[in-house]
Amino acid sequence: MRKRHFSAVMLATVLLAMAGRSVAGDLRGHGGPVRAILVQGTQAVTGSFDTTLIRWDLARGVAQSVLRFHEGAVNALTPLPGGGFASAGEDRRIALWNAASTAPIRVLEGHDGAILALALSPDGKLLASAGRDGTIRFWPLADGEARVIDGRHGPVNALAFLPDGRLASAAYDGTFRLHPSGGGEAASLALGLPLNALLIADGEIVIGGADGVLRIIDPATMGVTVIEVAQAPLVALAISPDGQMIATAGFRGALLLVDRRTRKVIRRLEGPAFPLWSLAFSSDGAEILTGGADRLVRRWRVATGEPVSPIAAEPEEARWGALANHPGVEVYRACIACHTLGPEDGNRAGPSLHRIMGRKIATAPGYAYSPALKGMDIVWTRETIARLFEIGPMAYTPGTKMPEQLVGDPKAREDLVDFIDKATR
Fold first, then answer.
1. Which tens digit of pLDDT belongs to each residue from 114-138?
2. How far is CA 261 from CA 197, 202, 228, 246, 264, in A?
3. DSSP assignment of 331-352
4. Of 157, 96, 105, 102, which Cα lies nearest the Cα of 126?
5. Does residue 93 contact residue 109 with C-beta atoms inside 8 Å?
6. Which residues contact 365 (CB under 8 A, 6 or more apart)?
7. Strand 27-28 vs strand 34-40: parallel, antiparallel, or unpaired?
8. CA distance 7 to 413
9. CATH topology of domain 315-423
10. Contact between 172 and 182 (Cβ < 8 Å)
């Protein structure tokens, strides 16, 4: 009897241990698209359009704490010395957190627009930030006044420090700049299209653009190598711990691995068709974490390209019926995490689109709109929605929290508007 009891206890212990390893799948907890991911050893921090930050235990796949401070989407994260991190976003503020704090230990303010990028200097003494106001700011972490660089004519989307202390920046206006560590005139390249993401890999500068192309820049010569990887905008990049692989993420599930040495795509991860906003390698390089429009942090096996957890369709999509095959569906997938279509789905990071046609802007019930939208005289029709995606939210509805998205192809734009019109009645 004792022997059987002992065996049962041992079996239960083994099963619990196995379960503990298997539950470390997708990370669920955010209420909006996951805009930023920072991996720190066996932990991660994520920031979302829902304004929250979540600390995660990656080994167990569980949330450790939810941090509430920002008053808008969290767009950027970067590590700080001692295991802390900095966060920034639409509310124009930078919050500094230590490894265990539940409130910021310091808040930095000064930007006149949403903050889109953060970077820590190699010596850990300086924090750089940039955003929609077109400026880059250098903040001494010990104390002191920020140094401001002006001169861009639009948002600065990405920042990264080189090992020698120079700062690389990439902007919506298509310019790449390399700023000297001590100040002075920056070296510049005009690349001709929105630049969304960049990273440093063994001294090389890797940039992801709106045309689905990777550009690798030699900082010594400013020479550019082009790698075509996707037919969709790239919005996030990550480098493997050994510096050998570049991961890319973007719209319509553009999730790929590129060998940095050979400049070749080595694996396409068969992911969902909705936008991916952020990604990071695990500390051991065995997994990639992606943050997307489905509000999850998904985990992928680098060796096989397979998701750790099965990918299920959005419940909302199951209710589209005959419209599921509409040509506008593929374009609409870029909107699915922020907006719903049916009367039963409610608001998400953005307002519900149910009965949007004929509705005045900023009047959907129960949604907290940006103050700038409330005074606008726009009524949503097929024509005004088409115009929104033709010139972009920042131009058509200045002050919006909506991420910048353009649908340049007139046929795709027409399909999107027709789908929204029919699906929201």
1. 999 999 999 999 999 999 999 999 9
2. 20, 11, 15, 10, 8
3. HHTTTTTT---STTT--SSS--
4. 96
5. yes
6. none
7. unpaired
8. 64
9. Cytochrome Bc1 Complex; Chain D, domain 2 (1.10.760)
10. no
